[in-house]
Request: fold
Amino acid sequence: MKITAFAPAKINLFLDIIGRLDNGYHSLFMVMQSVGLGDTLTVENTEEKGIFLTCSEKSLPTDEKNIAYKAAKRYYAAIGKEPDVRIHIEKNIPFAAGLAGGSADAAAVLVALNEINKKYFSKAELCKIGLSIGSDVPFCICGGTQLSQNTGGVLSPLEPLKDCYIVLAKPECGVSTAEAYAAADSVNLYRPDCMRMLDACEKGDFEGICKYAGNVFEQVIEVPDRVEYKRIMRENGAALCQMSGSGPTVFALFEKKENAEKCAEEIKKICPNVFVTIPVPHGITVERPAE
Reply:
């Protein structure tokens, strides 16, 4: 059987680090949103035993260093079966960008393999496997607009973000997530208002969401031209502009398509990776073969 899966990227409308757990991981309070930019994966059984991974982005590894490969290995271990799968990733999401591109690919592999194996696991069980691979994987499986808490395993659906247009600007540089957390641990962070943000999200209050949005990583991560990106975004009528995840991607929300497109054209003059997309109400989607 051959499954095609679409893996949406995500942005963080809100990200706060609540504290550090005894196991060294961080407890987070995040409002996450799936977007229309995504990778496409094909997953199919093969007669030959093993995990065979290819990727359109030649600089990415195709062995156990790739999180999608790890996801396939973990899934087969969970069902007690020897792997026999071929996976191809068509990359559209920039990597090392704060957009969960790798986690989205891992989530797509888990969902596709579960389709191939006749939904052996429930979505909750699949999310549990995903959490053992990466903190953003459960959200990428479920998607939409969600509150994500603790290490990513506690998800609560929120009112969908209203129709709008999203500009993503990703500079050439990448950001090490581990280094970002280490930097955040070394300073006293200003805390955004999670209570009012959650209240705005529950009400579907777009203006309130934009007002109370925040990302504590902006206090410790330096992104080239971030100030200039935000200036262009605001001048073109952005309702919100901030960094996603640990960066370096900066995004902006626009109510009017023409404003988003004009902003994107201006930012392209100084940023190599610019996208105009929309919020989507889902995580991984799959196309099954015709019966």
User: Anything to note?
Assistant: The first helix runs from residue 67 to 79. The mean pLDDT is 96. The chain has two domains: 2-157+280-287, 165-277.
